[in-house]
From TrEMBL:
Membrane topology field: Single-pass type I membrane protein
Main location: membrane
This protein's UniProt keywords: Membrane, Signal, Transmembrane, Transmembrane helix
Gene it is expressed from: Itpripl1_5
Protein name: IPIL1 protein
Family assignment from sequence similarity: Belongs to the ITPRIP family.
A GO cellular-component term linked to this record: membrane
PANTHER family in the record: CELL FATE DETERMINING PROTEIN MAB21-RELATED, INOSITOL 1,4,5-TRISPHOSPHATE RECEPTOR-INTERACTING PROTEIN-LIKE 1
Alphabetical list of InterPro entries matching this protein: ITPRIP-like, Mab-21_HhH/H2TH-like, MAB21L/cGLR
Species per Swiss-Prot/TrEMBL record: Dasyornis broadbenti
Length: 192
C-alpha cells in the first residue's frame, strides 16, 4: 500500500504526526510516544495537554490503553449487532465543537456500558441509548461531577492490568473545574 499513498510529515511538538493522501482521500495519523508502567496497562505518554502551564518535556500518565482494552472486553461480551461504538461515534461527530470533548463522551459511554446490559445496545435500542448518554451527561453537568472511568472504579474489569493504587484511589472528578469555576459551569450548562 505504501507505494500508492503520499506521506507528508506534519509539525508536532509532542508526537509524530503525518498526513496520508491518495487521490481524494486524506487523513492524519498521530503516534503518541509512551512508556509502560511495569506490567500494567497504564503508560506515561507525550500526549498534548490542554493545561498550558505543563512544560512540553512533561509526560503524563494515560489510561488510553486500559480504556481501549475495556472496549475490547465489552465487544467480546456484546452481541454481534451491538451499536455501542456507533452511539459514541454518532454523538462525537454531532457534538464536535460544542464544548464537550470526545473524551467526556467516551467516559459517559464507558460508565453506561458498565451498567446497561449489552443486550440493550442493539440497533433498535440506538435512540434510547443516545437519550441515556445525554441524560447522564446532563446529570453530570448539573452535579458538576463526572468520575474518571479507570481511576478508582471498583467495577473496572480485573483482567485489565492496573497498578493497585489506581484501583484503590478516590475517583477523580473530570468536572472538578465546573465545581470551582462558576463561569465554566454556566458555559457547560449553556452548551448542554
Amino acid at each position: 500500500q505504501s507505494c500508492h499513498w503520499h506521506l507528508m510529515l506534519q509539525p508536532s511538538s509532542r508526537s509524530c504526526k503525518f498526513q496520508l493522501s491518495k487521490d481524494k482521500e486524506s487523513f492524519t495519523v498521530e503516534m503518541i510516544f509512551g512508556v509502560r508502567q511495569g506490567d500494567s496497562d497504564i503508560f506515561v505518554g507525550s500526549q498534548p495537554t490542554e493545561a498550558h502551564f505543563i512544560p512540553s518535556t512533561t509526560w503524563l500518565e494515560t489510561t488510553a490503553v486500559a480504556e481501549a482494552k475495556f472496549f475490547r472486553h465489552v465487544s467480546r461480551q456484546a452481541p454481534h449487532d451491538s451499536w455501542h461504538c456507533k452511539c459514541l461515534q454518532f454523538l462525537s461527530r454531532i457534538l464536535k465543537g460544542v464544548g464537550f470533548s470526545s473524551y467526556t463522551l467516551k467516559t459517559v459511554v464507558m460508565h453506561l456500558l458498565n451498567t446497561v446490559p449489552m443486550t440493550q445496545w442493539r440497533r433498535w435500542d440506538f435512540p434510547r441509548r443516545l437519550v441515556d448518554i445525554l441524560m447522564y451527561l446532563r446529570c453530570s453537568v448539573e452535579t458538576k461531577q463526572l468520575h474518571h472511568f479507570v481511576i478508582g472504579n471498583e467495577r473496572f474489569p480485573m483482567e485489565i492490568s492496573l497498578p493497585l493504587d489506581f484501583r484503590r484511589a478516590e475517583p477523580l472528578n473530570l468536572f472538578q473545574h465546573l465545581a470551582s469555576d462558576p463561569e465554566a459551569y454556566t458555559k457547560a450548562a449553556y452548551e448542554y
